[in-house]
Amino acid sequence: MACRQLELVTEVTNIDPGIAQRLKVPKRSMVVAVPIRMDSGQTQVFIGYRVQHSLTSGPSKGGLRYAPNVDLGEVAALAMWMSWKCGLMNLPYGGAKGGIACDPALLSMGEKERLTRRFTEEVLSIIGPRVDVMAPDLGTDEQTMAWIYDTYSMKVGYACPEIVTGKPVELGGCVGRREATGRGVVFCIREALDELGIIPENATAVVQGFGNVGSVACEELHRLGVKVVAIGDRYGAIRNPRGIDIPALIQYVNSPGNVLHTVQGFPEAEEMDPAELLTTPCTVLVPAAVERVITEANAARLRCRILAEGANGPTTPEADAILAHSDIFVIPDILCNAGGVTVSYFEWVQDLQQFMWGEEQVIAQLKKLMRSAFQRVRLEAKRRNISNRLAALSLGVMKVANEKARRGLFP
Questions:
Q1: How far apart are CA 63 and CA 49, in angstroms?
Q2: Residues 202, 330: one domain?
Q3: Single GO molecular-function term (predicted)?
Q4: What is the CATH number of the domain that holds 132?
Q5: What integer pLDDT is reported at residue 260 of this predicted model?
């Protein structure tokens, strides 16, 4: 998917073929064995990955995910998308991504800590605050980042908070970082609603995923006045045509008795078939879970006006071709979910300067950059009569390509 998207950009831009070839291949890829002692006393070996797609614009930046199906191809594609995302948002980063093939739900806290610290040790030679900066992703959180921060700091001999972003606030994390991706999604949705002349109070939303991105997006949509009528997670889906009480749902999901932290069983909504979630009629559809959920099999059956891609790569190229012939307003992933890396940038800058911002300043700056990027994408799409996705990709790719052209090819 990622390579095909890059090819589409090369077809509609004047990018140098040699630079396009360089952009198609990651700068650096590392595969490591991560052996740890399990709580049972047995040793288990996990496979870890770190891919740095580009170092042209600055240090590479990207999340670290823990998931059973992580492989090198997936991590490389996500690293490439991160390059375009940072380019689109005008951030001084290249793209990177990491992952460990494991199921974090089956690991104890101690096992996750040992896994994280050993992985950090294995990739130590290619990370650094001016080389590669990690952040949380699927299956990881601020505690994971705290372990990486501590492990790296122990190795270099001094506290180095700028080695990761998305860490706890008391360790130099940025206020508002956890909510940043979901907030950014809703900032984009608000811009799209305004452009289409839709009043938020008259709009409905369906959200797939109720993790970090989905839950915050639901909160922000609820605060905006949009009625969230259906929500799904990995365990099931619920709906309420009159609107789901989001504060009550969050309280239910986080209650001690809800061991799986699932939306399933919420008393103020009815259960629904998860397969029907994406095709539920609504104003705004937010896929905020995993990639490749909108395919040629279901794209024609979407019944939304706005598709806001909170997840990375939720729409396949085949589905994109179908959506191109519909009236669905697509907010592409590299724009829609860029709030996370944007506030990660804010955190990195604060750590480098040892000067921390307040939450109001963080939110105001995030809103400013997200709105600016949205408007640039729409201007490019209208000017060249291309889709929002191709416009966003073109802006991101061309920024990196122009920087490569200016720097030249060494030696």
A1: 11
A2: yes
A3: glutamate dehydrogenase (NAD+) activity
A4: 3.40.50.10860
A5: 87
